[in-house]
């Protein structure tokens, strides 16, 4: 069972963080990170009013989401895990938002595919993932190369609307969220996807427009 109270509680925590911060933005989208979650739990979350879901792997999402999207056409599905260039076509068919554009080659592959894809009622949106802590094992463009990638995406006419990051584990996240906010600001990008179960209140205080929550909504993954 998904605890209704957990969703209500998260909303209250988001509201409180928003109220107390000058950096906080007007609205914060609550994205449910549903990797590893079965259909029943997703349907339960939809019933509680969640409209945005994030999946990490194209293949897992392809096995789970087509019937759900048909049944709940208002849902927006976000890709929040790495995307390989050879999966771009499938990803664009299934996902509404790709949050993990992190290299020129991938941006090119997406632009190429979009040029021939059938038109959609609601256009795709794209966020650039920044490896905000410069961690060798993590995906994302390096902070010092982010401006360049944003420019390049714009040249390719990709509708980039924001930035996404996962800060280093076990370090205070606020400085990393602040850095992501600065990069977004100087590039004229409005969306900041940052904050997970452990640190979403800090992220909201630092200006997050989308928090990505897994465990706090669904319980621990098995
Ligand atoms: C799993 C995941 C989340 C949610 O993490 P929790 O700690 O369970 O809230 C958020 N973002 C990404 C990219 C993830 O892979």
- Tally of DSSP helical segments: 9
| Alpha-beta classification | alpha/beta
Low-confidence stretches: none
Mean pLDDT: 95
Biggest beta sheet summary? 8 strands, parallel
Count of strand segments: 8
Return the string of H and E elements. HEHEHEHEHEHEHEHEH
| Amino- and carboxy-terminal Cα gap | 14 Å
- Ligands bound here? pyridoxal-5'-phosphate
What's the Cα radius of gyration? 17 Å
Shape descriptor:
globular
Determine the strand fraction and express it as a percent band. Answer: 15-25%
Walk across the major sheet and give the strand order. Answer: 7-6-5-4-3-2-1-8
- Helix percent band: 40-55%
Explain the overall architecture.
This protein is α/β, with parallel strands linked by helices. The protein has helices at residues 4-19, 39-47, 58-71, 88-94, 104-116, 146-155, 174-186, 200-205, 215-218, and strands at 29-33, 52-55, 76-79, 97-101, 125-130, 160-165, 191-193, 210-213. It has nine helices and eight strands. The protein has an eight-stranded parallel beta sheet with strand order 7-6-5-4-3-2-1-8. The chain is globular and about 45 Å long. 38% of the residues are buried. The model has no long low-confidence stretch (mean pLDDT 95).
Please specify the SSE layout and strand pairing.
Layout: H1 4-19, E1 29-33, H2 39-47, E2 52-55, H3 58-71, E3 76-79, H4 88-94, E4 97-101, H5 104-116, E5 125-130, H6 146-155, E6 160-165, H7 174-186, E7 191-193, H8 200-205, E8 210-213, H9 215-218
Parallel strand pairs: 1-2, 1-8, 2-3, 3-4, 4-5, 5-6, 6-7
Pyridoxal-5'-phosphate (PLP) binds at residues 33, 35, 56, 80, 166, 196-198, 212-216.
């Amino acid at each position: 069972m998904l605890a209704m109270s957990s969703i209500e509680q998260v909303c209250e925590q988001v509201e409180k963080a928003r109220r107390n911060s000058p950096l906080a933005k007007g609205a914060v989208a609550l994205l449910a990170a549903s990797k590893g979650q079965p259909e029943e739990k997703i349907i339960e979350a939809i019933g509680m009013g969640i409209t945005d879901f994030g999946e990490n792997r194209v293949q897992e999402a392809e096995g789970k989401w087509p019937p759900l999207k048909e049944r709940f056409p208002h849902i927006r599905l976000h890709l929040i895990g790495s995307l390989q260039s050879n999966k771009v076509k499938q990803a664009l068919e299934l996902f509404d938002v790709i949050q993990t554009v992190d290299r020129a080659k991938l941006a090119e592959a997406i632009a190429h595919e979009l040029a021939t894809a059938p038109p959609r009622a609601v256009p795709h949106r794209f966020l650039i993932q920044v490896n905000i802590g410069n961690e060798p094992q993590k995906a994302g463009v390096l902070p010092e190369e982010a401006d360049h990638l944003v420019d390049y995406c714009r040249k390719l006419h990709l509708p980039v609307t924001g930035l996404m990051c996962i800060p280093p584990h076990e370090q205070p996240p606020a400085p990393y969220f602040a850095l992501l906010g600065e990069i977004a600001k100087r590039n004229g990008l409005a969306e900041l996807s940052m904050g997970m179960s452990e640190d979403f209140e800090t992220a909201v205080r630092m200006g997050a427009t989308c928090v990505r929550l897994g465990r706090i909504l669904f319980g621990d993954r098995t």
